[in-house]
Predict the structure.
Amino acid sequence: DIQLTQSPSLLSASVGDRVTLTCRASQGIGSYLAWYQQKPGKAPKLLIYTASTLQSGVPSRFSGSGSGTEFTLTVSSLQPEDFATYYCQQLNSYPLTFGGGTKVEIK
Amino acid sequence: QVQLVQSGAEVKKPGASVKVSCKASGYIFTSYYMHWVRQAPGQGPEWMGIIYPIGGGTNYTQKFQGRVTMTRDTSTSTVYMELSSLRAEDTAVYYCAGGLRSMDVWGQGTTVTVSS
């Protein structure tokens, strides 16, 4: 199975900060990576697919990059509604797997 | 709008089975693959498997092989996930999620509690 390692596991930041989250795959997955945002008690919400394609309706302050084994999700200017947990997911091969998550909290 | 609506919360005893439904609306049912994902309390999401609406083929993660069955009813645009031989560790929120290149749309989640 492909393992996804997210770092950091916890990120403390302020409104307006630029933040970058990292996801590393245990083997190459091309660009078959998605990013999700999850708030407490809610289902995950798709932000980015195929590593860098912004899902319709998602603010442009979110961007994704990377390929192969290293990927990043960047939020250019954190807004109050962005404090949440973020998960990466590989869709290159079964079983699909998720990373352990990065919780973005208010500093 | 595109929507997935799941059945309500369940409480089951160890050894029992649970069947969760997920009704799709707002799009052509056969357009999206349908995944099942579960999330135990305080944990990250865990992919359980996928069902292809056209033909009904499935792919389950090995962890649930022999205990999970995913089916679909194209006449009602509904997919089902049945998990048998429940144990306490199966207590989780179960989600259906649809999409092609990712999981674009998610159901609201169904809480399954396994307790004696």
The interface with chain B takes residues 32, 34, 36, 38, 43-46, 49-50, 55, 87, 89, 91, 94-101 of chain A (CB under 8 Å). The longest strand of chain A covers residues 19-25. The mean pLDDT of chain A is 97.
